[in-house]
Amino acid sequence: MARSYNQRGIYQQRRERGFSPRWLILFLIPAILVCLTAYTVYDNGRVMLTTVRVTVSSLPAALEGFTILQASDLAGARFGPSQRVIRDLAEKTNCDAVVITGDFIGPDGDTQPFFELIDALSRNTSSAPIYIIPGDADPAPDSEKLNDWLTGARQRGARILDSTTSLAKRDATVWLTPESMLLEPDPADALSVYQAEIADMRARGYDRSTRVVLENAQRTADALEREMVVRGQIQSDDLHIVISHRPVDDARAALLNSWALSGDVFYRSIDAFVAGHLAGGQWRLPYLGAIYVPGRGFFPNNIEGFAYVDGYAQVISGGLGRSSDTPYPWFRLFNSPELTRIVFTRALVQTLQP
Length: 354
Prior knowledge:
Blueprint lengths: L1 E4 L5 E4 L6 H24 L3 E8 L11 E5 L12 H8 L5 E5 L10 H10 L8 E4 L10 H12 L3 E2 L4 E5 L2 E7 L9 H17 L3 H23 L8 E5 L6 H12 L3 H4 L3 E4 L8 E2 L3 E2 L1 E2 L3 E2 L6 E5 L2 E5 L21 E8 L6 E2 L1
Parallel strand pairs: 3-18, 4-5, 5-6, 6-7, 9-10, 10-11, 11-17
Antiparallel strand pairs: 1-2, 3-19, 4-18, 8-9, 12-13, 14-15, 16-17
Helix pairs in contact: 2-3, 5-6
């Protein structure tokens, strides 16, 4: 204590000023923000490999361990020069097929990060085929830009999954179906609509803008014709996987189940769905999960990893970039970008592990 004197000459004790707790708080807040920013920048620049195991009790022995490597929701992001981080990860990952499940073009419309992603994923040691489906943030079907990325993707060896396609492994068959072909028990009605539209446009004549619409309508009609042919070839012991951008919800799954129960072999043969779109909620809190997802509310469940939806197995990738309908700024918070490795097995395990 130090002495001081009042106006009457009587001394009194006064307390010396120490270090105030509020100064500590004012120091800690900026320090925490700096650390959080640094971690977020680091976390957004790396890519994790997440493995999900899916049980299919009727899986043929030849398909035990059949593996899909999934990339979703790139949204124009880059992970190192020419997607080097993804390339290094893909080079060490064996798989039987690669699927890119939409939203690969960023808000600026630049397709180069997407093309670099294809090149990076083609570096996997098993030289697996790459299949692509567009997302809701990618060029619209009647857009001239659609032809640009279609051409660029094909030039890099990727295949556009626009109808059910088969993969052979040893003596067994895997079928990959784009969600867009889950139309109705018989796609013939949809084909008739497109054929009538094509005939009408040709009869009326078309300019440059309508030519793009005509080309895409013809592309869809061709896909529907292929779909009608292959649907009769699927066998009950084949592995049948639906590739989707948006996850299948309960209402959609219930409709598919109703078609399956009506006796339609195609829908009865579906073993699993593979989807993306949600980007793991984009902003997450440790131990609490995603803060908010449009259409699913606050702290929703089953937005990434493995879950059942009305009896169907579904795997939702946490993705690489942002979701197309997120309310958040572009970056991910406590939510590392990921490639998803999906392994099909007859063993009774469904696990999500790093």
